[in-house]
Amino acid sequence: MDAARVKAKAIELGFDLCGIAPADSFPELTFLDEWLARGYAGEMAWMARNADRRADVRNVVRGARSVIVMGSIYNTESEYGDDPTQPFESPHHRTPTRAKIARYALGDDYHDVLESRLEALLAWMRAESSEPFEARAYVDTGPVQERVYAQYAGIGWIGKNTCLINAEHGSFLFLAEIITTLALDADTQALEQCGSCRRCLDACPTGALVDAGVLDSTRCISYLTIELRGSIPEEYRPAIGNHVYGCDICQDVCPHNQPGSVSSDAPWQARSGLDLPRLIDLWQRPDADLRKLLKGSAMTRAKLTGLRRNIAVAIGNSGDAEALAALQAKGDDQPSVADPMVAEHVQWARQALRSVHVRGCSDSSPVDAADDGPQLRQDGGPADRLHR
Ligand code: SF4
Ligand code: SF4
Question: CA-based Rg of the chain, rounded to a whole angstrom?
Fold first, then answer.
């Protein structure tokens, strides 16, 4: 099978990038064990369960010789990023009363979209190949260290923010791959282009990038708002700001995303209701309404209680007195609001908002500091630390 034809077909099917890596052992693959041993995977136990397979794609497809890696640009001209040529300090990035959702989750669930494109590519390859072959196709969920193979397929390099960065298009890329026993001509490895830059490490609000290219997931807002099922440690809640699902900060600050490419692909366009919605509006949606909003999007991974938890924390960080009133409404008829774990975060948020308004407002403050809630903190609440 001719590698150039495979790549041309991938582009025809809607992928933006396609490269081919040999199914070899690469030194970057060996760091996984140490990363797991350091506890950086947190509750993502599934990563340790299949670490052996993740160590080498030949443990996934016996006799694999090539990894075909596809990239899809998901950054759009949506309200979240407004004009991607605008600097990070754009007002849209600093709107504490609106919910920030990671760009990749604004549109349709990428698993569904990309899987169907991968299946179409694989079906075409089977029809075109003169020899039988084995292959497995994955979108994000397979036991594959896909960024390493993407680097060796020439798609981009793994930046200090741990994202795969394409020199022309930036890092807002979905990756998907086909591992196959076919021997295809491999591309040249992409060269690292971070240089002396450290913007992402300096910008991370939780210090999750503990070293260049080393992420402690347990401190990362993406992990805390998506993968973590229980309570978010209080020490990280202020730094979460208005992020209700994921975080793009270490990509937003990257010079290779300024400007990054944008996609007009329909599935990645922001769904109505997810493009910088007001936190209070999100919170006040009944459970059934929220489920409808998220159906078919990547945001279902956090579950409804997880999303409620995140919205409560973001409201606590918002300084919005109007939102405090909304949090004080009982909401017990909504199971996700009545959930004890969510209720604890609501309590935290109420306390944070009271702290801000008691210190920041005159006697005519709209917030009644003498209601039956918890005692006010005298040392400045979490929102104080966020907005200093
Ligand atoms: S996604 Fe956000 S919290 Fe996670 S490493 Fe990047 S900047 Fe830090
Ligand atoms: S911000 Fe700088 S150091 Fe971080 S990934 Fe981008 S280029 Fe590399």
Answer: 22
